[in-house]
Each structure stands twice: as structure tokens, then as C-alpha cells.
Write a structure and sequence with these properties.
The chain has about 375 residues and is an alpha+beta fold. It is about 45% helix and about 25% strand. The N and C termini lie far apart (about 70 Å).
């Protein structure tokens, strides 16, 4: 992973006492990490791309060229000056040399691989890190785990408190992740209100212990706002190799799928990946329901019984069929004072010999809000027309 190697090389360059110590450190790094170190080195020092099979020869050539220059000049010559002369005279690989201070280079590198708002790694860097971890897992069978995190009800935070407060919330959660994670873990802002943590050499149990600690820390955190404080929670999905799959490249998608299980379980929880088709956790529930097609005119109301329910919808038994794709309301008699009202679309109709039907309805809160508003608008139009 070139970005990681470049960061390591910048630190080695700054921390080494002299060029000889830096060259020795690079050689040790090449022994442990391979020829990719040299590719990153030439790109860092000279801004050029050298092929993997040519890089070792050019590295040896540079060191030899430096010794020759020192002998001819009768004085010490630093590595960068030697590199410039080598690339210009011995290889012609460098036609327009440029100078750049290592600290400034590190700043540019930081902006390239880090998310500007949170300071965590960005999606591009994470994708590179994930690809490297997949390669290691495929080669050596190393354990690793992925944790996906999604801030619960983040849209409401932006809508209620404003986007600047939403940004503060993202930064605060990033700070908790940075504090809790191990140095070897790679944490990134995946996009929007989503975060992801890659945990090398981590099995499922260790990953879950970390994920639970992180979830609790975020739950206990408060963000000052005006005369009050904002509380946040996250839902997380955890997947591990080789426990959940024998194909490590699938792990990212499996962890993402597990987030839906956490959301369906009521949010503010960490869910393990489960190999099932359902994206939401379903709960068995048997309660009377009243069902009506959603229309601006009078429609028949049917009585039925619920069978199971989840965040994504409900399955109920009915004595009459309903058309696929129909918009319906389902009133579930949870208690006499406050029945649960769901609005959604019929996606499944299964008939039985005795005239019973299983009806599956799917919905989202966004869809319920949209449909309910549309129905209210329709009622107002009818009232104004009369």
C-alpha cells in the first residue's frame, strides 16, 4: 500500500540522523516489505514512477553513484543531490528536477489520504489498505475483521440543529474512534455519516469486544449545543475472516449488510454478520391488525393478524388478497391507547387453501412520511374543492 509506505519513508527520512542511517533503514524495510518500498521511495524523492523489476537495480545504482560522486568531489554528498545527478546523467529518467521539503511533502500526503473534516483516513486510503489486507489474508490466512458504523438518525441531527452541528458530531465521533482503536487498526470515514474500522490480526470475538466498547463510548458522549447537549448513538455491523467467509474480499460487503441487522434490532447496537436473505431482524408478533388500501376515497377495511414485524415492514395474515404494489395502511393493536400505524407497499401475497392469505408489506420511515404527506395534501384539495 503505497500511501502507507510513503508515510513511513517520510518519517524515516525525518528521524534518521544522516543519509547513511536512512539508506540502512530503507534496506531493512525492503527486506521486510518487498520491492514496493523502492517504488514509493523514488516517487517520494523524485516524483517518478519506476517499474517493480527496475526499481532494485536503480536503487543499487543510486548508492553506487553516490559513492563515486563523493570520491570525485572529495566531500560528503547528500542522498537527494546524488539522486538528482543519477537520474539526470545515468538514466535520463528525470528531465525537470524539483525541490520539495520533506515536511511539506508530508503535509501534501496527509491531505491526499485523510478526510479533511474528521482527520481519519479517507475512502481512497481505506480501499488501498483493504486490498492489502485481502492480499495478506489470501496469501497467509491472516485473521482480520471489519467494523462498519452508521450514525443513528443523523439526518434528524442536520435537520434539527443544522449542518455545522452535524459536522461537529462527525468530528466528535471520529475523535472517539481514534482514542479507542489500536495503533494497528485503520479507521476511515467511508462516506457521509458512515465510518469503517479495519482490524488486522483480529478474530470475531476480539473485534466484537472492541466494537462494543466503541459503541458505549459514543453513547456516553455528549456534544454541547446552545443550552443543551446532543446525544448520539451508532449502529454497527461486524464481519470477520475466515469465520464469515472464505473469500476475504467479501468481508466489507458482509459488514455493511450487518449494519441493517443492527438498525432492524432497534439501533444503538452491534450486529454480527448472519448468512440470511433478510436485511432486518424480524420479531414474531401476533396481534390484531386493521388493513386498508391507501386512497383518498373510502376503501374496505380488512381484519387480520400480524405474524412478524421488523423495521423494514410487517407480515400479516388476512382473509382477502391485496394487489401487489398497492399502498396500504396497517394498524397494529399493540395496546388500546396507541396502536402502531404503518404505511407501505404490498410486496408479497401467498394464498392458502382455506381462504387465508399471507401479506408482506415493506416500508421505510421516509416512505411513510412521504405517503402520509401526500394523503394530507389530497384531503386538503378535496376539502377546498367542496
Amino acid at each position: 500500500m503505497e500511501a502507507t509506505l510513503q508515510t513511513t519513508l517520510v518519517l524515516l527520512l525525518q528521524e534518521s540522523g544522516d543519509d547513511d542511517a536512512f539508506i540502512a533503514a530503507v534496506n531493512r524495510l525492503v527486506s521486510s516489505e518487498g520491492g514496493e518500498v523502492l517504488i514509493a521511495l523514488f516517487r517520494m524523492l523524485a516524483g517518478i514512477d519506476i517499474s517493480p523489476h527496475e526499481a532494485p537495480a536503480h536503487w543499487e545504482g543510486l548508492q553506487h553513484h553516490r559513492l563515486l560522486l563523493r570520491q570525485r568531489l572529495g566531500r560528503d554528498l547528500d542522498l537527494v543531490a546524488s539522486l538528482c545527478d543519477y537520474l539526470r546523467t545515468a538514466t535520463r529518467l528525470l528531465t525537470n528536477p524539483r525541490l520539495i521539503e520533506a515536511g511539506h511533502y508530508q503535509e501534501m500526503l496527509h491531505e491526499t489520504i485523510n478526510d479533511k473534516l474528521t482527520g481519519l483516513f479517507n475512502r481512497l486510503y481505506f480501499d488501498e489498505a483493504f486490498s492489502q489486507q485481502v492480499a495478506l489474508a489470501e496469501r497467509y490466512g491472516n485473521d482480520f475483521s471489519i467494523l462498519f458504523l452508521d450514525i443513528d438518525d443523523f439526518k434528524e441531527v442536520n435537520d434539527t440543529y443544522g449542518h455545522l452541528t452535524g459536522d461537529r458530531a462527525l468530528v466528535a465521533i471520529a475523535e472517539v474512534i481514534t482514542r479507542v482503536k489500536r495503533n494497528s487498526d485503520i479507521a476511515a470515514r467511508f462516506g457521509g455519516e458512515e465510518f469503517v474500522v479495519l482490524m488486522p490480526h483480529t478474530d470475531n470475538i476480539s473485534g466484537f469486544i472492541f466494537a462494543e466498547r466503541l459503541r458505549r463510548e459514543i453513547e456516553e458522549m455528549s456534544i454541547p449545543f446552545a443550552n443543551t447537549s446532543l446525544k448520539l448513538t451508532v449502529s454497527g455491523g461486524l464481519a470477520s475472516y475466515p469465520l464469515n467467509t472464505d473469500k476475504p474480499r467479501q468481508l466489507l460487503q458482509l459488514a455493511d449488510n450487518a449494519v441493517y441487522l443492527a438498525k432492524g434490532a432497534g439501533k444503538n447496537t452491534i450486529a454480527h454478520y448472519k448468512e440470511e436473505k433478510r436485511r432486518y431482524l424480524r420479531v414474531k408478533i401476533s396481534q390484531p391488525v386493521l388493513v386498508r388500501e391507501l386512497d383518498f376515497h373510502d376503501t374496505a377495511t380488512f381484519s387480520g393478524t400480524s405474524k412478524d414485524i421488523c423495521i423494514g415492514g410487517i407480515l400479516f395474515e388476512n382473509n382477502a388478497p391485496l394487489p401487489l404494489g398497492a399502498l396500504i395502511t396497517v394498524q397494529v393493536a399493540m395496546n388500546e391507547d396507541s396502536p402502531l400505524l404503518l404505511i407501505g407497499t404490498v410486496v408479497r401475497v401467498e394464498s392458502f387453501e382455506d381462504g387465508r392469505y399471507d401479506i408482506g408489506m415493506t416500508t421505510t420511515f421516509k416512505e411513510m412520511d412521504k405517503i402520509a404527506n401526500a394523503e394530507i395534501v389530497g384531503i386538503l384539495r378535496l376539502q377546498n374543492a367542496t
